[in-house]
Amino acid sequence: MSSNSNDSGSWYSRKYNEWYTAYMPWLEDKYLQYFGENKASYTAKENLKTDVTGNEAVNKVQGGLAEGVGGQFGKGGLLESVGQGVSTEGFNRAERDEHNKALKM
Questions:
Q1: Nearest alpha carbon to residue 38 among 103, 82, 104
Q2: How far is CA 71 from CA 9, 13, 64, 75, in A?
Q3: Cα 15 to Cα 30, 34, 95, distances in angstroms
Q4: Please, what is the Cα angle at 30 between 41 and 20, to 5 degrees?
Q5: pLDDT at site 66
Q6: Could you tell me which residues come within 8 angstroms of residue 77 by beta carbon, excluding any fewer than 6 positions away?
């Protein structure tokens, strides 16, 4: 009887991981889309905001640069289609591969 309960537990775990892998990237994309972003634009904005100098003026310039570059990958930006492609084919695929590797360990 205990082997049967372990089987159902692993079945639930497997199904949860399958659904997570399939739908979480979609949910993240929809959330970011609500704000006119995609994963490429969001990542660019977050990674370019490096307040390392402590100088208020330099931090403002860095913040503006991050918003400008990231905005080009977002909705209405010059590189919107590139941002969408990188988000869909790059980030989502990498996240799924990483999740699947973690499951196999």
A1: 82
A2: 44, 38, 10, 7
A3: 22, 28, 18
A4: 105
A5: 80
A6: 41, 71, 83
DSSP state of 91: I
Could you give the dihedral angle defined by the CA atoms of residues 59, 60, 63 and 69, in that order, rounded to the nearest 10 degrees?
-120
pLDDT tens sequence across 60-96: 888 887 878 788 888 888 888 888 788 777 777 777 7
Q: Structure pTM?
A: 0.59
Domain boundaries, the chain: 2-104
Q: Are 17 and 99 in contact (CB under 8 A)?
A: yes
Task: Write the pLDDT tens digit of every residue in 11-62.
Answer: 888 888 888 888 888 888 888 888 888 888 888 888 777 777 778 888 888 8
Q: Contact, 39 vs 87, CB < 8 A? A: yes
- Locate 89 and state its tokens: 């084919």
Higher pLDDT, 20 or 103: 20
User: 75: which DSSP letter?
Assistant: T
